Amino acid sequence: MAPVLSKYVTQKNAVIGGAVAGVPLLVYLIKKYALQSKKTVKRRAPENDIQYLIVDKSAEKKNANKAHVNARFIKQLFFILKIIIPGFTSPEFGLLLLVAASLTARSYSDIWMIQTGTVVETAIISMNKELFKSQLLYFFAGMPIISLVNNVLKWSIGELKLRLRTRLSRHLYDDYLRGYTYYKINNLDNRISNPDQLLTADVDKFCDMFTDLYSNICKPFLDIIIYVYKLTSTLGFETPSVMLGYLMVSGFILTYLRRPTGKMTVIEQKLEGEYRYINSRLITNSEEIAFYNGNNREKLTVLASFNKLTNHLRKFLEFRVYMGFVDNIIGKYIATVVGFYAVSIPFMNSKSYLSNLSQNERFRNYYTMGRMLVKLAEAIGRLVLAGRDMTRLAGFTARVTEIMTVLTDLNKGHYVRTMLTDNNSSLNEKKLVPNSGRIITKDNIIKFDKVPLVTPNGDILVEELSFEVTSGMNVLVCGPNGCGKSSLFRILGELWPLFGGTLTKPPKGKLFYIPQKPYMTLGTLRDQVTYPHTKYVEEMQRRRKTDADIANHLERVQLSYLLQRDQGWDTVADWMDVLSGGEKQRIAMARLFYHQPQFAILDECTSAVSVDVEGSMYQYCRDAGISLFTVSHRKSLWKHHDYYLQMDGRGLFQFNKIDSDTEEFGS
């Protein structure tokens, strides 16, 4: 007899079949629409016309962007954990224990609520009013304790995040602001293009992700231990073993499928950093861009960076949706099916002790144990899904490890920079190696002995520079642009490495540098003069100086009117915006007078100051015993100097005394 198919076509089956058939169609339509949208966007996207490069050598390294949950990730994570959790007696470790204890208390609270709720429902079904009232009151009395447990857990997780971020940030900033590392990471080493992104956003996300993952793993892990113990003592080990076996198999499958997540997280943070960097460049160079009317061009560059970021985020979103679909199937729905099968084993077994109980007793046991099995299945599902966060944590761990490695290298004097092939070969021919020179610290003298002027890119400006300056000698440094004047001062200030020779110079605190655009710090008017001193009160007492002495310096640079502001020395303002270019240059000279070093490097630092004020400032430097290295194109400054150092831009230099026969040049 032919089968009658119509008896299977019910309304319920038709709805299920239609839904199942409709899912692939819906996915196909969404995918088709997304492809069409991508084609439309691709034709109009700014990156088709705009090209830019932000150097990031780390991305060129093999396996640089590959972050997986493997032995390398575990090693990196434990290295960071030693920093943010320094010991068993640290507050961070205590918070870890508090989180674990709160999670344990929460799991026992869940069991208590299941058991008490079952008794309350049994009292309702059996119409036992006394039992119902007593158990309901008992249930109500436990609510404040459970609420306290939940809020202690919430506080401990939040406090743990803050403390971990504080530990890690302080450690990184100790390395970042040690010596000139903050300068070298941005100007010498090109492995990291956006340290601000790594130091702020990535550190924050790492600490959040680690803390959330810790709680998300601890809770289900503790649940599994507690529920397995409870179920094993009642139903035997066969039922929990099925669930645990499924945990291992599903965890292995999902961990393998999630491997691209770590790499995509690293790329996401890199593109976020590029987008932020391009916006910060717009702010930093806003005046120059405005003079060029370059707003439309900059807009295209910003949009190009933004579109790169959004395109990647869209791909990442699609991947997470696909993985979410698989996660839900494996981590939730199949886990529920496995849970039903596991709970049925002791109830379907005729040899089990449950077969000798009454139907009501079996129902009560099934209700209690079934709820526990559901909780166990949920815990296993959460543990399986936690692997998704583990892969993202691997990405942030790789990012944080990257900047820690670079900072460690820079503090040891090692930097990595991409050089032109020709420059590299010329350096090798002349046997010029970074940090191969020798620095001797000595008061009242600056001496270059066969020191090559070499840029970090490998350009040789002067093969061997030799001259000697002692205290009391003022030197005017001159030459065309690109001849090596700034390079000379960067080497003298130990910002750039020595490629050979011997440099004799005073200690860092006795050598002062004033650029053409002086830096104004955040703080009071007094802070602008005493910068970079942090404890100016103690420092002024040590130097036996008072506010009256600083006021005299302001008078010398004709800025005493600044003291007439509301709070005088304690006036707080955004001095970079409040002061004009000439006022900032005069503040910088007052700063020089306050510190009174042995030598000062003046790099076009009086270009916005009138000649008469400039002359009085130079005369005071001579009277105060401050020897000067000056870069300037003003003829009026020659009379304030004793020697001149001239570089021609072709590798040659002259160091001679200024006399009546010396030809003065400049404007």
TrEMBL record:
Annotated Gene3D superfamilies? ABC transporter type 1, transmembrane domain (1.20.1560.10), P-loop containing nucleotide triphosphate hydrolases (3.40.50.300)
For this record, an example GO cellular component is:
peroxisomal membrane
Instruction: Name where it's found.
Output: Peroxisome membrane
- Fetch the SMART domains from UniProt: AAA
| Spans through the membrane | 14-34, 136-157, 239-257
What are the entry keywords?
A: ATP-binding, Membrane, Nucleotide-binding, Transmembrane, Transmembrane helix, Transport
Q: Its domain of life?
A: Eukaryota
Under the heading Pfam families, the entry gives:
ABC_membrane_2, ABC_tran
Question: Per its UniProt record, what InterPro entries does this chain match?
Answer: AAA+_ATPase, ABC1_TM_dom, ABC1_TM_sf, ABC_transporter-like_ATP-bd, ABC_transporter-like_CS, ABC_transporter_sub-D, P-loop_NTPase
Q: Name one GO molecular function term.
A: long-chain fatty acid transmembrane transporter activity
**A GO term (biological process) for this protein?**
peroxisome organization
Ranges of residues in domain ABC transporter: 446-667
Can you say what this protein is called? ABC transporter domain-containing protein
